[in-house]
Amino acid sequence: MTGSPYITQTRRPTSRIMLLVMLALLPGIAAHWWLFGPGILVSLLLCSLFAIGFESLALLMRNLPIRPHLQDNTALVTAWLLALSMPTLAPWWLYLVGVFFAIIVAKHFYGGMGQNLFNPAMVGFAVLILSFPVQMTQWPAPVALAAHVPSLAEAFDLVFAGQGTLSVDAYTSATPLDSLKTQLRAGTAFDEITSQSIFGHFGGSGGEVVAFMFLLGGLLLLAQRLITWHIPVAFLAAIALTASAVQILEPGQQADALFHLATGGAMLGAFFIATDPVTAASTPHGKLIYAAGAGFLTVIIRIYGNFPDGVAFAVLLMNIAAPLIDLYTQPRIFGQTGKSGRNRP
Q1: Which alpha helices (H) appear in 114-167, and where do they start and end?
Q2: What's this model's pTM, rounded to 2 decimal places?
């Protein structure tokens, strides 16, 4: 049994592919900046600097050349995905811990690029949400609803010096997913919950626009043939079908499919996280099974689990299954004889 990735010859080096991935993330980043304030820029900067530092340290300890490996931009992509998965304006040490586990533990402890079993960014996120749940639930409030939107200078001050003169409640709020789960468990009626201003039109005030921008970025990856359609389509379809089934079973108590597609990390996960060629399944049928399992688990964790969003844990669980999925979904070898005795392509 061999592991992924199975990459055919390409004229585009890894560094260029990673730059295109980062370019595809820019629409979502711009929307986040516009709708939630400039704190996302601080998160991206810190995660990028920490990733470069830890990558250099790991390469030095492994006696590998630093410059060529840094220039492949894989560490930066991991840093950006982790930053986009974390709440902005978190304490600086939270980014440090997350990047350490993403780069050192999840990537280099397994042998470096192409050898890791788990998605590094999601490992970093999982460690943080399990270890520091309070800090990881203080998400920035949408600009339209926030009592105060920190400027870029205030964002740096909050990250490095703490709250300062600002109250946490002035610039943070619960996410739509977290708010929905908490209030449903408290017995609040579903219609009453979704009438609140934080829920926007169909996904969450501001968040639905960010999700749409990540969708546009994902379409760019498809157009550039950096990913195939199998994982995004199967992942989003599984989310929609699972959410619809649960809504039918519990009418008036669960959100519809559109809400689950437009909130949390659904779009980011579908196009940028679950499609990681190293940790995902690599065969065509395997990609469909892998992504469908991740989409199903995402909704189940969101609804019945202890965490508001389940993308990270769903992807990590399916990372474990990816090699086995590939083993049992290998295409038939050309010319292999079937049960009927005739050759099959």
Answers
A1: 120-131, 152-161
A2: 0.89
